[in-house]
Amino acid sequence: MGTTTDIPEITSSFTEYAIFIVLLPMLAFPVILFLGRLFNGNETWVKSAKEGGLIALPIMVASFILSLILIVEFIGSGTGSHHIGDWLSFGWIGADGMTIEEKVFGVGIYIDHVTVMLLFVASFLCMLINIFSIGYMNTDPINDNRNHRFYAEFVLFCSGMLGMVLADSFLWLFIFWELMGLCSYLLIGFYYERPSAAYAAKKAFLTTRVGDVFLVIGLVMLWNMFGSLDYSVVFNPDNIAAVDSGELQMALGMMFIGAVGKSAQFPLHVWLPDAMEGPTPVSALIHAATMVNAGLYLVARMFPFFGAPSMAGELVDLAFIIAAIGGITAVMAAAIAFVQDDLKKVLAYSTMSQLAYIFTGLGAALWLANTPGMEEYAIIAFGAALFHLFNHAMAKGMLFMASGSVIHEMHHAHHDLHHHDDHGDDHGEDHHDDHHDEFDAQSMSNMGGLASKMPITATAMLVGSASIMGLPLIGGFWSKEGIIANTWRVAREEPLFWFPAFCVLLGAAMTGFYMSRMWLKTFAGKPKTEVAENVHENTPWIPIPLVTLTFVSLSSVILAGMMFTHWSSDSGYAFFSDKGLADGLIYEFEHIFLNSDAFFFVLTYVVIFIGAIVGPGLAMALYGGALKEGEKAKGWMQPIINLSARVNEKRGFDNSAWADSGLSVALKERLYFDKWYDTAMLKLVAGFAVLSATFDRKVIDGTIKTIERSSQKISLSVRKLTTGSARDYIMMAALGVLVIYAMLEVMI
Amino acid sequence: MDANTFDMDLLQTLGPELTVFVGLLLIMIIPNLGNGKFRIPGTQIELPWFLGGTRYKAVSSPRLPGLLAVLTMSLALIQVLWYLLETNADGSRANAVANVISSENGYEIFSVNLFSRIFEAIFFAALLLAALASLDRLPTGSVKSNDIDVLFNNRRQADFYILMLTSALGMSVVALAQDMFVLFIGLELASFSTYVLVAFHKETRAGSEGGAKYFIVGSVASAVGLYGLSMLYLWAGSLQFDVLAAKWATDGASSLSMMALGFVLVGFAFKISAAPFHFAAPDAYSGANSPVAGVLATASKAMGMLGLMRVLLLITVPDSAAEDESAVWIGLLGVMAAVTMTWGNIAALGSENPKRMLAYSSVAHAGYMLAALTAIGAWNWGLVDTGGDAKDIVVAALLFHMFVLVFFKLGAFLVLGLLEMEGGASRLSSLSGLGKREPLLAVAMFLFMISLAGVPPMAGFLSKLLVIMGIVEVATGSGSLDSLMDAHWVWWLALLMVLNSAISMFYYLRVGVVMYFHEPEEGREGPLASGVSIRLAIAVCAIGTVAFGLVGGELIELCRDATQYLG
Fold first, then answer.
1. pLDDT of B472
2. How confident is the model at residue B325, as a pLDDT?
3. How far apart are CA A459 and CA A630, in angstroms?
């Protein structure tokens, strides 16, 4: 059913190979796994191939280069969206039983601004994380001889994300989406002998599964309405005009629940903090490059539905729900991040909170798109959300890798310290577990004062935190500003939106606090343990991605000047087409700092004030402190540390009343969500499961076994007729002839 | 075309059959070539005549007959496939016109057309795969066991392949025949060859016993069939298909003709092992070596089916005058179909011997085919008010089913054959642990099993689906029905087929359970004997099973085109 949109095809030779962006990592998966099994423990394999790391790396680099070529081609080709035809199509027997119906589903790729942006994020970060992994995984003694599994699953994960982004239909999107789900399960549970890791893997898998069920329902509904899941069909305004808006809203709402699960939003957020059980590169992969962005991508893909003229004003409820879920999660996650002591957990909640920002931004954008007369702002809001996705991915990738660097070096320092006295002779898993019991390398209470010892890491962490907080001119500032402004813009039109609008504003201040707290607790002040004093950076592979990403985050201002927001959202907008870099920068600066609309003018400075001054100021007052005597950080960090020390001295206050309050306990318990879910599962689901198991054993199995027994009996008696004597056979045949004769005789 | 001229046209038309014939002669002659001399009586002059004496080394290889047979069958099969697939420049079929070969006085003997050629493709493909598999199956090297030493002799080998080729020749005669008597000759030629093939392992008790029973019951069935033919001749004065059909159309069914057809039916029912004429089949299958059993279950069965289709669909053409009486026929067939498929499946449920299990499953498949035939008959006699081409759909589905059956039925037997080389496959436990011992082989066997059971996307699923859809289409017609009671009763056969398929799942999947979850029997842990050619044959079967399930469109269309040559 339905006409297909006439989407121009890219005819360049390079884009023909775009499928290899996905295929290369996918094919590398079995290769690495196989070679790893083959050469397990072999010295060349460990030293030269880094247990598969150096096989994965060229593949990811190739994927990235192909992506870049594709992106350049795309920018060169002007505007609009492109669809590269179907490479494969399958037929099936038609309804009449004889004809072959053409093409039920095909494989193709679909490229537009959103694709290109996410393609860059995914392939770029996957490549950097791969480099980081070589430094991180291969020096970890617990990983002896099984890193090939890590790299194999890693490349498969990447191919899942890249494939999802390039897919030309919701069906393929879903297939790759599930591929990622599988890989996330495998990677989070990489240390499967640790019960907590196995539990976390299960939890992540099952929680996202809840969302996925709804996603499937949504997709089936969509299929039902359009007769296809191809973008070229479902995005066609003529086809959209033919469907019922209520039904469409229901389908999209179901799909949104899938996105909520994948992107760890309230109320399906519980898996994300536990997912930290995986190795740190996996955390970086899940939180920055791939998995959580999938949900955002899915919602971003819904834009054409909201923009369709026939749907005007019909889908605003869903837009509000998206924004509200984002608002709730933003505040909730930020609040929980306040009390986390584990370095990675802070980052996990920060991810949740920042993703919530993007959802809020998308919700606002979708509302604007769905409201006649607001289309021009919809583009800006949409662009701001996507730009925040970009900034967050870069910053969070960097933060996770930096935290990995810290944890890694803490581990090594601890190992070096204790190697001589008590754990001299044992190796392997027990060894690691011992460490874990007595010393938590991820706990910020064991750190402090690392700024001077790990300059590259500390710098990366600083820039990353600044980008997440939205300090003016750095990274996320440009996009967060846009999200908040546009949410308020909607709130001025639609009173319901006051709720998400206040949430994001509050969230900005909270982000400022918890990110500063994390940085200060880790890098400022005096070392809190002996281990922290002996930390130093010494792994060659880790700094490469950190430095790269630091520059990317800092250069976000240039992207802003290139009108990234407009370009990434408006299919009619070519890169650089309207303004040069200088003009673009001036435009952006004017727009943000000197907005002609008084409301937004004030709003901007409120955001800057609470996000960059109130939040960090509070954190400094509580956690600031000078480095140990004689230690000195790099020139760009020293002033901050000094400032924090001074604020701490002057304005420091006792927060123990807060720290011991019920709220704090509740936050530490993650607001009891996990407990409630567990109880609900135990009471309802487990009870029901026991009931059905009994039913299955008694009634169903019983019936089947009875059938089986009696059928065997019948079978035996039937087979007894085959006596083995030819005489009897002839007799039976004669009997048959007689029966035939009789039948004919009687019936004629 | 006249049969008495041995011109190039005839040679071309009957290319595949003549190839088989020449190959037959070669296998008879070549292994006997030697330095034999003929002394002219009364003189001392000896003339060399090359037969007998000390045989030449080159021709005494025990492998030679088998290779000759494989070569012959491949050449014949290639010609048949060429005939089937040759197209004109515009894409239409090159061989769209039937080529009838008649005797001087106008009797039609053979008709070469797409329909008969498809059957020949089935026969030749099955026999080629069986011959290929037997290259390893019949030991030719040194084997310790004494009682098969005799098989090293290449004359014994030659006997085996001669019998295979004669059965191929007989089957192709059945496919081409335009006369009941010619058809009967071909049927007997093929049957006698298979009787001997079943008993070929005369050293084993099961082989000779199975062969003897098969022969005895088979000869009774043939006798009854021949009796029916004689009554038919009495009634019509000729056994020509077109004469019989014309007589049927004008005179309608009489008590004599009906009875005659009833007896002819018995003859064919034995061939397709329909109940209650199937009793010898399990004994024969388990006694014969596996490739031969595979041929019985595929080619031989297709031959019987072909005979039934000729008799029921060619001769008894629709005639409004005969409508009521002829309906008896359909009832008879329907009952037979229902009994056969149920009996086969229930008996297979408890079978502990995989070969007997496959034999019973083959009985069940005969039931499915009879059900399809019943539906065709119902349409043919105008009992069903269905416009369009519902009949053609069922016929095409039946052809397709028999074609793909070659791959997964024969393939399953060949896997058992490989097990037999190791020392027997007469217990289900011989298969145990195959998943560990030979992963690829186990996968192939599992594919065959689920294809037999009709699991998508295997060829067996597609063929069963087409048959069932065809029957339902015939039963319900094009118009909408108010209730199921309005549908023709053949609808219930389709339902029974579905139920039976569900039952059959049990014993097909049990093979998978045994292969993957049971530990290997003691002493049978390692990989199986290497047999390149039998493994090749199994691989071909496995590929065919999957490929025709996924991309069977071309073949279905071919079957569709072939249906127009049936009456």
1. 84
2. 57
3. 20
Per-residue pLDDT tens digits for A514-562:
888 888 888 887 887 777 777 777 777 788 888 888 888 887 777 776 6
Residues of B within 8 A of A745 (CB-CB) are 259
Tens-digit pLDDT profile for residues A268-297: 888 888 888 888 888 888 877 788 888 889
Q: Which of A133-142, A365-374, B81-90, B163-172 has the lowest mean pLDDT?
A: A133-142
Q: What is the DSSP string of B300-343?
A: IHHHHHHHHHIIIIIIS---GGGHHHHHHHHHHHHHHHHHHHHH
B213 at the A interface (CB within 8 A)?
yes
Record: contact A719-B220, CB cut-off 8 A: no
Cα angle A50, A52, A56; round to 5: 115
Between CA B221 and CA B204 the distance in angstroms is 26
Question: Residue B258 in contact with residue A744, Cβ under 8 Å?
Answer: yes
Cβ distance of B277 and A744 shorter than 8 Å: no
Domain ranges for chain B: 324-567
Q: Cβ contacts (< 8 Å) between B256 and chain A: which residues?
A: none
The answer to whether residue A4 scores a pLDDT higher than 60 is no
Report the distance separating Cα A355 and Cα A711, nearest Å: 59
CA distance A225 to chain B (A): 26
User: Which of B303, B304, B315 has the alpha carbon at shortest distance from B277?
Assistant: B304
Residues of B (376-395) whose Cβ lies below 8 Å from A = 393
Q: Does B328 touch chain A (CB under 8 A)?
A: yes
Q: In this structure, are residues B161 and B131 in contact, taking their beta carbons and an 8 Å threshold?
A: yes
Nearest to B473 by CA among B373, B416, B390: B390
Nearest CB among A712, A726, A730 relative to B350 is that of A712
CB count within 10 Å of CB B385 equals 10
Contacting A residues, span 95-134, partner chain B, CB-CB under 8 Å = 96-98, 100
Lowest mean pLDDT, pick from A16-25, A174-183, B333-342: A16-25
Residue A425: pLDDT above 60? no
Query: What number of CA atoms fall less than 13 Å from residue A153's CA on the CB side?
Result: 22
Give the pLDDT band of residue A79 (cuts 50, 70, 90).
low
Q: In this structure, what token pair is assigned to residue A156?
A: 């498969």
At residue B409 the predicted structure's pLDDT band, cuts being 50, 70 and 90, is very high
Residue to test with chain A: of B330, B349, B473, B507, most A Cβ within 10 A: B349
